[in-house]
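Students often ask why we bother encoding 3D structure as a string. The short answer is that it lets us treat folding as translation between two languages. Here is a chain of 611 residues written in the first language.
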Amino acid sequence: MAIRKFRESFKWLIWLVAIAFVAWLGLELGANILNFNWTRTKPWQEGIVAEVGDYQLTVQEYDAAVQKAIAETLAVRGVEALSPEEEEAIRDAVFYQLVDMIRWKKLADKYGIRLSDKAILTIIAMFPPPEIMRDTTFNRNGQFNYQLYLQVLNDKRYAPIFAAYERELRRIIPVEITRALFVKLPATSRYEMWKEYERDNTKYGFSFVNLVYSQIPDTPTGVSEEDLKRFYKEHREKFKKPPRADLYIVRVDKVPLKADSLQAQELVESALEEAKLNWEGAVKAYSEDPRTKDTGGDLGWFAVDDPNLPPEIRQALSDADSGAVLGPFLFPFGWDIVKVLEIDTATDSVRLAHILITVKTSYQSRQQIRDSLIKFLEEARKLKDNKAFLELAKRYGFRVDSTGLFSLAEGFVPFVGPDRALISWIKRSKVGAVSDIIYRPQFYMVAKLIDKREAGVPPYEEVKEDVKREYVLNFKRGKGLELMREIKGKLESGVPLDSLEAMYSSYRVSVGTADSASVNTFVRGLVAKDLFFSLLGRVKPGGWRGPYDYENGAYLLFKRYEVPVSKEEFDAKFATLLPQKQQQVAMKFIGGFAKELEELFPLKDYRGYIY
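And here it is in the second language, the structure alphabet:
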């Protein structure tokens, strides 16, 4: 019976294997016949610059926005070209503007905020496209004629303009409506605004004594390991850490390669020949210094021994005549050709002009750098241990920096700067993960996650040094409060306030006095101002109060008088204060909501593989 059951089961197993084999064979043959590649292409290989949630930003869309921004910048500045650094900065700014717009558009779609066809037609009828507004054929008597515009609404010749305008309206207006809806929060109540106004504008006359605990020279003696462990156990919350991570950062600058230098050198040689024949023409044709390009390269007068002149140029000037063309000179910023315009022998000074030609990193050089990084990535992702990763980077000639454990709550990455997209990658990645190529205007970067810690209280051994510092500070806090009670007694017995700094110089006690001061007034020696003025608002005038303990020290204060602000003054200003307050609340909300948008529609940036 058992054997028969086994045979029946075995038959089914044979059939399943056969079916699977035939299916695989069919796919394999089909793939070969169709010459189909089952290897999944990468997003950047399909012309995708970035993914924002499930939205794919294409090279065409991104480049069009960049070119538009560059054209607008050129028109505003009235120049013919921008420096490579300026173009890179524009590319970066446009990228994040598009990402922000896409996120808000996705949010608008999520909540069903979109324009109907009727709304679009109404907007187009009421607000002509910018291209038509700029078209002088619609002007009469020097002004835009609305009736002429209405006549072309159905003119097929203008269809491309209206189609582009409609796309822009459908893209932007739902975003603006969504932003407006999200920031239309309940306004701060009139009472809360009054209390804030009262706090900020009430004037006080006061004196104070301030002692910073860390300045106390006394330290505890005979502290044992058991003492520290007991303190750690009793004050665990003091040692709580936010989520943290440690990265290896491989950064590769977009520096010119040898081919770029040779290409620039050829350009310099041509410029030098032209400069000797036609200096003005050579400046206009070759110089990349926007400050002097339109003035014949004129740099002004210099003393022959001026230390601001590079030594190579000073040396060449020693036997140069007026009109001499010197160089080319190679400096970190590029090649320089210099002309002596005039010589004043009486003052031993010269008037110089120059042609600046920078060595640029070509697209081919950037591609070569990227190709090198891509090969590095392919190998790095196969490695298991950190030592092998470091050795691989060294073999490629890449420098590696270690961030050390840093907080993910701040949004700031050491060696990188503010980068919430990188923080987001860290949060969703496992230890050992290697990032894609990260694009920056001046460099490419790759990160490896070598350690990751969740929020919480670390083990004692990990925060032992922190425990020691807190233990000492806690000891000094006790000493400080005792000392401040002693000082208070002396003040109450008539010891002059201005004698305390000298009397307690070893503790660096600071004292101060102010008249008609508010929370926004600078007062020397005053720290933790919000707490200090909050205390002033609660105590009665006359007599020394305290000591009041704050995070790093303690205060004694003497309130001499208070000049309250009138409710009538606030009521008179309320109409002006309200929109300011609403704007503050809206900006604060938008800033805080940006983080939620990033988590809702995460960014995958592929620029490092394309540009």
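Translate back mentally: The longest strand covers residues 334-344. Keep this in mind for the problem set.
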